[in-house]
Amino acid sequence: MSPRPSSTTEPSGAPRTANDAPDPRSWTVLGRRVGLPVEVRKARQWGVQYLVPAAAAQRLVSPTGLEVTGPIPGKALVALAVCRYDDTDLDPYHEVAVSFVVRPHDAPPRPNAVQRAREFATGDIGAYIHRLPVDQEFTCVAGRDIWGFPKWVTEIDIDEPEPGDTRAGTGTTVRLVDAGVHVLSLTIAEGGRLGLPAQAPPSYSFGGGVLRRTTWTTSSEGTTGRFGGATLVLGDHPMADELRSLGLPKRALFSSSSAQMQASFDAAEVVGPLRG
Question: 202-214, pLDDT tens digit by residue?
Fold first, then answer.
């Protein structure tokens, strides 16, 4: 049975290179060497953003010492992202992410409204990866060991429309099931009209009282978005209950999709324990 998400996620072991000497650029995962950076050569991605009460979001993020942020005072941004990885150094797999937009770990404390708005407008932000279920064991172990990402193995089905079908009402539906329990179903409309640039804010992970930051780069083709454009149905599962605590399901602020995405993930950097 797959583990239910908990408030912290520990890396699953202490990986070593083939000669058993510590090397931050080379890891052994389930008997197989993985070198950094890890490359994603072909993937497709979908994302949905929601404005939620900052106080509710901060309750989930507080163990990390990070601070949520958003474009409106009193509101935070939470994102649900779905990725179908077709060609990567960690093999093909499906992934669902729950993340929060956060201020950088070393940002000055107690910003005023103007400072907070400036940070957000200039992209001086990060993404805290709160939940990251995947559907394959190898990427699960690699993600936990190398970056401290909160991965666990679930069932993730992605149902896409026929290529080129952008009719009104069409969309991609992802269904996430953990140990037979429905977590969520998310449908994202096709055919957004707004062209979007590729973005790769630093990603934070947290486990065992240790905060890590991972830098990565990305490029994409056919990335479009729209206001709204998503329907979320929550199941009976702790992850679903967390999303309900944020006021979901509700109307999405924004949804997007990338027809093709490439990415490169570098090593995780330990940036500190909990802040007081």
Answer: 999 999 889 999 9
Give me the mean pLDDT over the 249-254 stretch.
96
Residues 6 or more apart whose Cβ sits within 8 Å of residue 276: none
What is the predicted pLDDT for the residue at 272? Answer: 78
Write the DSSP string, 197-257. ------EEEEETTEEEEEEEEEEEEEEEEEES-EEEEE-SSHHHHHHHHTT-S---SEEEE
Write phi, then psi, for 61 (nearest 5 degrees). -90, -25
Distance CA 172, CA 36 (A): 32
What digits encode the pLDDT tens for the residues 170-218? 799 999 999 999 999 999 998 777 767 667 889 999 998 899 999 999 9
Map out the domains of the chain as residue ranges. Answer: 26-272
Describe the crossing of helices 54-61 and 238-245 by its angle, rounded to 10 degrees.
Answer: 140
The strand ranges marked E within 160-209 are: 171-178, 181-189, 194-195, 203-207
Asked whether the beta carbons of 5 and 238 are under 8 A apart, the reply is yes
Per 3-state DSSP, what percentage of the chain is helix, strand, and coil (rounded to 5)? 15, 50, 40
CB 189 within 8 A of CB 202: no
Burial readout 200-234 (b: 16 or more C-beta within 10 A, e: otherwise): ebbbbbbbeebbbbbebebebeebbbbeebbbbeb
Could you tell me the two tokens for 43?
């993937």
* CATH superfamily name and code, 26-272: Acetoacetate decarboxylase-like (2.40.400.10)
Contact 179, 235 (CB under 8 A): no
Name the residue among 157, 128, 154 with its Cα closest to residue 238.
154
Q: How far is CA 30 from the centre of its chain?
A: 23
